[in-house]
Batch of 2 targets.
Target 1
Amino acid sequence: MENTPTNVSGIISQQAAKPKAKAKTPAQLMQGVVNVEASQALLKNSLKENAGAFTASIIDLYASDTYLQNCAPQAVFAEALKAVSLKLPINKQLGFAYIIPRRDHGVWKPTFQLGYKGYIQLCMRTGAYRYINAGPVYEGELKKVDKLSGEVDLSGDPAGEDAPVIGYFAYMETLNGFRKCLYWPNEKLLRHVKRYSDSYKSGSKIWKDNFEEMAIKTVLRYLLSHWGVMSTEMEQAFKADNVEAADQMIAGDNAPEYIPAQAEEVPAEPEVSADAQ
């Protein structure tokens, strides 16, 4: 009889004879979540013929974002359902909506986040707006801000092709004639994010790499939340949009973990005193 391999205790080692089960890939883990009957029924009821495309996009998102893979696939899918309810794509390259991984007391949790393009898309769906726009203001463009009426005159000529950005604007006009414009100089924008944005204060990578996009969203969201048309869908969007995570959109797989004690400084914009205007 052949000798049977044993461990030092004389107990037959069965593990040596059994191959270890191959770990599932991130794509397979997410497929296991979205392909169950209940998930597919929910997607088909909400998205109809677009259910398949959304299923493919959430699988691709989870499979391609190594940072997001720190979160459980079930939790990522649950946050993605907020995008489903708003009928917005979650492809982060498009900029309409994002699923952002964050640490909460040592536990990774995904968070749904609207991009500024998502807000514009929802405004367009209301059918109530004639114009809606937002963007940077370059040195030389600003001629006048009427504090009483709120009118902003940006008809000036920029000071050359490389004119510096001095602030950001957001503008809307409804079909019934109501219009409102906000202009926030860099100083005001910085005061706002220094007060409300923990990730900006900690030196989050997204503010350094995507400062303009984050600044535009900050001003546009403020405009819409105070003077915009609050359709049912828009109210739902404001509830779903995580304000605390608004400036922590992950631009790519190499984005650093949000750890305030080890964060870098944000050198892109100057420091401003609290009483500056």
Target 2
Amino acid sequence: MAKKGQYKAGASKRSKQQRAYNSSPKAKKDRAKRNKARRQAIRDGRVKKGDGKDIDHKKPLRSGGSNAKSNTRVRSKSANRADNGGTGGRKRKTMKGRR
């Protein structure tokens, strides 16, 4: 078994990249902001643990949005993650001849 801070023998290049990104100071800070928004919504009674809902930031944190109540809303997990600019783990399709 790999020790703390080490990779498993068969770890893929992608998993190593993801682990390095997730431990970066910026990623930790962004994750803390998202968790804070979730905890606040639980305190307000807008969501419950395990209810399948996400806290959506109307103006995303990555675009300078805040955790203010006026900037957050409750959405289903699938709806929130479908339109947040990500690819859901899939590689982006490129048109032939264009980059």
